[in-house]
């Protein structure tokens, strides 16, 4: 599947430009969550979707820092790569859960698998961009601190799961213990219970899903640092 990248708003360029104080070094923009292994969501083939939960990334090929904020700064945009569900799958999912949508969240980790959602973007409808990658600029940038993590909150469903990894790639969901889903009819009901966390809410990310990740990134601008100037 070839990926097409769609920039939703030309405001990205304006949002990413930060007025630096005199003597401050230029801020270096980076993409948090970038994975360069070429793997993409496999829809409609072997299609799986994430539903009604907030995700907390843990590892990508054993690297725990892929979604970690390296220093204080601001998020100015976020991107998501999407599979293209079949017409039948899409119809069934929309009937049960509504239109596909997601939002970026900033997680501040607590003890063990606890975290608080300290900020979030607005939720965006995803179905116009199935089969490609889309970037959403933020009208108001989001302040982040070193050590925060970037997660994804899915109030309905999103075809953004990338599979085919080993067990050293994983993510966690804000679902209660014993309600992590599964193949039986009873456990499949877990996927339809809304466990998303709103800004300001703390939660426990009890459910661990191995050998897969979610395909999203955040555009990060570090806080400018002042450099010495000669007199």
Q: Can you summarize the main beta sheet?
A: 8 strands, antiparallel
Uncertain spans: 1-25
How many runs of DSSP E, i.e. beta strands? 15
- Described by the principal axes of the CA atoms, the overall outline is globular
Strand content: 35-45%
The helical percent reads under 10%
Whole-number mean pLDDT: 88
Q: State the order of secondary-structure elements, H for helix, E for strand.
A: EHEEEHEEEEEEEHEEEE
Radius of gyration: 18 Å
Structural class, from secondary structure content? mainly beta
- The CA-CA distance between the termini, in Å, is 57 Å
The tally of structural domains comes to 1
In DSSP terms, counting alpha (H) and pi (I) runs of 4 or more, how many helices? 3
Question: Brief overview, please?
Answer:
The protein has one domain.
Description:
This protein is mostly beta strands and 231 residues long. The protein has one domain. It contains 3 helices and 15 strands. It has helices at 11-16, 87-97, 185-188, and strands at 5-7, 30-32, 50-59, 73-81, 101-109, 114-120, 124-125, 133-144, 149-158, 161-163, 170-173, 202-204, 207-210, 212-214, 216-222. The strands form 3 sheets. Strands 3, 5, 6, 7, 9, 11, 12 and 13 form an 8-stranded antiparallel sheet that branches. Strands 1-8-4-15-2 form a 5-stranded mixed sheet. A two-stranded antiparallel ribbon has the order 10-14. A hairpin with a 4-residue loop joins strand 5 and strand 6 (114-120). The longest helix is centred in the middle third of the chain and has 11 residues, at 87-97. The model is unreliable at 1-25 (pLDDT under 50).
């Amino acid at each position: 599947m070839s990926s097409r990248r769609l920039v939703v708003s030309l405001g990205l360029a304006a949002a990413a430009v930060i007025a630096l104080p005199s003597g401050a070094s230029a801020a270096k923009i980076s993409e948090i969550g970038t994975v360069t292994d070429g793997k993409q969501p496999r829809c409609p083939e072997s299609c799986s979707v994430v539903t009604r939960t907030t995700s907390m990334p843990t590892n990508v090929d054993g690297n725990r820092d892929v979604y970690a904020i390296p220093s204080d700064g601001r998020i100015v945009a976020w991107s998501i790569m999407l599979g293209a569900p079949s017409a039948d799958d899409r119809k069934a999912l929309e009937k049960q859960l509504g239109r596909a949508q997601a939002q970026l969240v900033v997680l501040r980790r607590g003890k063990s698998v606890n975290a608080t959602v300290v900020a979030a973007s607005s939720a965006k409808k995803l179905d116009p961009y199935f089969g490609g990658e889309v970037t959403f600029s933020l009208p108001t940038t989001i302040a982040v601190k070193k050590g925060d993590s970037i997660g994804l909150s899915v109030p309905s469903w999103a075809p953004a799961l990338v599979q085919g990894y080993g067990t050293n790639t994983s993510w966690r969901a804000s679902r209660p213990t014993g309600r992590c889903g599964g193949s039986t009819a009873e456990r499949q009901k877990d996927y339809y219970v809304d466990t998303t966390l709103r800004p300001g809410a703390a939660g426990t990310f009890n459910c661990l899903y191995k050998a897969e990740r979610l395909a999203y990134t955040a555009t990060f601008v570090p806080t400018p640092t002042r450099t010495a100037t000669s007199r």
